[in-house]
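agent> Task received from the user: take the single chain below, predict its 3D structure, and emit structure tokens. No templates, no multimer pairing.
agent> Plan: (1) validate residues, (2) run structure prediction, (3) serialize to tokens, (4) report one or two observations.
agent> Step 1 OK, no nonstandard residues flagged.
tool_call: predict_structure(input=
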Amino acid sequence: MKSAKAKRRWKDRGLSGIVWLSGGISAAILLVIIGYIIISGIPHLSVSFLQGILPMVANTLFIIFISLLLCIPLGIFTAIYLNEYAKPGRMVRTIRFAVDCLAGIPSIIFGLFGMLLFNKFLGFSYSMLSGGLTLTIMILPTMIRTVEEALKSVPQSFREASLALGATKLRTIRKTVLPSCLTGITTGIILAIGRIVGETAALIFTAGTVNGMAFSTSVSDQFGLLESGRTLAVHMYLIAKESVSMDEAYATALVLIVITLVINGAAGLISKRQKKFD
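)
tool_result: status=success, residues=278
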């Protein structure tokens, strides 16, 4: 009996050691990559360099805004339907299967689809709108699945207590369920932002590679929705591919990492403040 307990104890310690080792290796790889980019990129940062990539920074933020503006409500509403309203059956299984299939499609396929649908068929040509719509389709599965899992984590007793007090189902979802899973929703948004800022293949085919800010002075397109422009990730890919300057590529990568960290940090801070307020 004693030897059996000792064996289980050593087995638990061994499994714990494997888990900690795996986590440590993953963290070490991440630190090495980020450290290498920082070391390679910082010496080449300058005021003139930052001014030169400013249009690409604006395009990146612009396309993040377009994609999230469409993806967040679609993803949240779809997840609410699947978890709160839909009854288990063929339709729900079909929707979940479609979402899982979309999540596994390579980004270049999304780019070709976006080019054919938005650029050619709908006549948007190479534009921020085409790129934003394509990225919305790409990140939608991640948003749906993340929010759905967050909704599942909310105890059923919360819903029952709200309904017992006379609240409607919609009010229960809006006032009780969603505030309780705000952290999960924020996680979905952060994951979506990470995929948007790092995307190249889909945007080359849809948003284009124009080296400038997507802005138009025409009355019908004041915000540059129908203007072409490259994001930071596309810019970094092009200057590395064309061997323009690997130093500039590393510096651009560093700026991209900083922007991603700032946006993710801001999203997490807003989530914490909102949760505290609620």
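agent> Step 4: summary for the user.
The chain has two domains: 1-44, 47-273.
agent> Done.
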